[in-house]
Amino acid sequence: MAGLGPTFPLHRLVWANRHRELEAALHSRKHDIEQEDPQGRTPLELAVTLGNLESVRVLLRHNANVGKESHQGWAGGSQHWRP
Q1: Is pLDDT larger for residue 24 or for residue 6?
Q2: Residue ranges of the domains in the chain?
Q3: Model-level pTM?
Q4: Which DSSP string do the residues of 14-71 spell out, in sequence order?
């Protein structure tokens, strides 16, 4: 979680698997659900990588883009490498 700071609130909630707070943050519509962290990961990609199923479910309910690719070529919803 180091380096996420207050600039990446959704990522911090995903990292801690605080899915109820994540749900509330997304309901407020104050945060960009597709924001990328310094490693180029969206909150959905981070949740999938960490295996935080409840956070994944929350993000999908709020229409996180499963097809969005990170800078490294990963699609957040699939974790499959795309050249």
Answers
A1: 24
A2: 1-83
A3: 0.77
A4: HHTT-HHHHHHHHHHT-S-TT---TTS--HHHHHHHHT-HHHHHHHHHTT--TT-B-T
